[in-house]
Amino acid sequence: MSDTNLEKVFSAVKRRSPTAENLKIVSVQNRFLDGSLYTVGFDWEQQGVTTSVINRVYVHGKSVDVYGFDEQLLAIVGATHGRGITNFIKSPRAVTSMIAISITLLICIHQGTSIYYGSIPEIPEFLSSGFLLILGFYFGKTIHSDDG
Fold first, then answer.
1. Which of 4, 56, 108, 148 could cysteine-pair with 67, CB 3.0–4.6 Å?
2. Domain check: are 49 and 103 in the same one?
């Protein structure tokens, strides 16, 4: 957790609640959607009564969004980060997966028909090199994304 992010988080909470005092980080989820989610606790004085309050602060890219109620956060998350089929198809991982599946199916069909008709199954060079290229790319990205 960098000091720059903490400064951004605290200043965003102070903008939303100018009378906030004793700000402290209650918890941090470093992997929350496309950024990090901070839970900030603070004391809030209104009409002479001090109340302990928490805000959720979503830091993603250069944006810092503050939510006073979990319902607000959930509404934004649900509206902007749906898990529908269209979002899956738009993702780069889906495109590479579809290409890999297509090439794998093509190789399997070619092998199956070759065996069925009694010929010696030979995979064309362009298919085998394409298959190995995609396989290497997939495992390279998977290992890279697991490292952080």
1. 56
2. no
Cα distance between residue 12 and residue 77, in whole Å: 19
**Segments forming the whole domain that contains residue 38:** 3-81
Take residue 91 and report the two structure tokens written for it: 């993702």
User: What is the number of domains present in the chain?
Assistant: 2
Kindly state the tokens that stand for 15: 């903008």
109 shares a domain with 75: no
Q: Contacts for 45-52 with beta carbons within 8 Å, 24 or more apart?
A: 45/19, 45/21, 46/19
Using CB atoms within 10 Å of the CB of residue 12, give its burial: 0 to 12 exposed, 13 to 18 middle, 19+ buried: buried
Residue 109 CB partners (closer than 8 Å, separation 6+):
none
Taking a C-beta distance cutoff of 8 angstroms, is the pair 23, 7 a contact?
A: no
| Tens-place pLDDT, residues 4-57 | 788 999 999 999 988 889 999 999 998 887 788 999 999 988 888 888 999 999
Query: Which CA distances in Å does 65 have to 11, 16, 56, 69?
Result: 11, 10, 8, 12
* Residues 98 and 134 grouped into a single domain: yes
